[in-house]
Amino acid sequence: MRWILAPSFPTHTPRTSPHYLTHAATLRYQAQRILQQAKPHTRIHQSHRAQAVLNRTLHKRINPKHRHIITLGIGANLGTKQAICQRFAHLLGSLTRNKHCTLLATSPILHNPPFGYTNQPYFYNAIITLATSLSVVELFALVFYLERRFGRGRKRAFKNAPRTLDIDIIFYDKVIIKRAYLTIPHHGFRTRDSVLLPLDFMLRQVLESKSTNPQGVSRADLYFHRRDTSRSSQKSAR
């Protein structure tokens, strides 16, 4: 499987700059290193770790009213690369202007092969982490509205069909929901590289940005190390 890094979102909150897409050589280099070094089992571990570390280290920047941390997966494969990236940029702009949301972090945009129905263009995928005051139902309604606003029809022609914009709710705090119309965490997050790789990249960016405060990072690392160790011990005891 070959992954190609496309123009990427910024990895920090765009507080003042209107430019949501960058072509930073250092960002491409770091992402390529991750893609080369990542292994399936480490990516699955890092996906859990990325979400939790993002929740902890970014929480201080959140509006107190925006108490819920959510992770959205976005994807599209209809249109040119420039059109899709611009669509993603407009989506970020819409979320940034929404008074109920605070944009926390974004991943690079990855160009990757489709799954399920493979006779279609490659997808562009990315991950967005937000803080929000919206409930699960309100967030689901917002996602539904944004997909339609950016050209997605009410019904797909068939399962895994090409699309102008797909927005998946990957995580909503630690909430677990299983309904006919909504599953949280997203049912495919453990197996889809389009989720695992961007989350892994975001984790590394957060840890690097916290290098000036190693104590905070080491506490988070210690927490996850202890949790994983305790789970391993429990399994071995059984």
From TrEMBL:
<keyword id="KW-0547">Nucleotide-binding</keyword>
<comment type="pathway">
    <text>Cofactor biosynthesis; tetrahydrofolate biosynthesis; 2-amino-4-hydroxy-6-hydroxymethyl-7,8-dihydropteridine diphosphate from 7,8-dihydroneopterin triphosphate: step 4/4.</text>
</comment>
<protein>
    <recommendedName>
        <fullName>2-amino-4-hydroxy-6-hydroxymethyldihydropteridine pyrophosphokinase</fullName>
        <ecNumber>2.7.6.3</ecNumber>
    </recommendedName>
</protein>
<comment type="function">
    <text>Catalyzes the transfer of pyrophosphate from adenosine triphosphate (ATP) to 6-hydroxymethyl-7,8-dihydropterin, an enzymatic step in folate biosynthesis pathway.</text>
</comment>
<dbReference type="InterPro" id="IPR000550">
    <property type="entry name" value="Hppk"/>
</dbReference>
<keyword id="KW-0418">Kinase</keyword>
<comment type="similarity">
    <text>Belongs to the HPPK family.</text>
</comment>
<keyword id="KW-0472">Membrane</keyword>
<dbReference type="GO" id="GO:0046654">
    <property type="term" value="P:tetrahydrofolate biosynthetic process"/>
</dbReference>
<keyword id="KW-0067">ATP-binding</keyword>
<keyword id="KW-0808">Transferase</keyword>
<keyword id="KW-0812">Transmembrane</keyword>
<feature type="domain" description="7,8-dihydro-6-hydroxymethylpterin-pyrophosphokinase">
    <location>
        <begin position="159"/>
        <end position="170"/>
    </location>
</feature>
<dbReference type="GO" id="GO:0005524">
    <property type="term" value="F:ATP binding"/>
</dbReference>
<keyword id="KW-0289">Folate biosynthesis</keyword>
<dbReference type="Pfam" id="PF01288">
    <property type="entry name" value="HPPK"/>
</dbReference>
<dbReference type="GO" id="GO:0016301">
    <property type="term" value="F:kinase activity"/>
</dbReference>
<dbReference type="InterPro" id="IPR035907">
    <property type="entry name" value="Hppk_sf"/>
</dbReference>
<keyword id="KW-1133">Transmembrane helix</keyword>
<dbReference type="GO" id="GO:0046656">
    <property type="term" value="P:folic acid biosynthetic process"/>
</dbReference>
<feature type="transmembrane region" description="Helical">
    <location>
        <begin position="122"/>
        <end position="146"/>
    </location>
</feature>
<dbReference type="GO" id="GO:0003848">
    <property type="term" value="F:2-amino-4-hydroxy-6-hydroxymethyldihydropteridine diphosphokinase activity"/>
</dbReference>
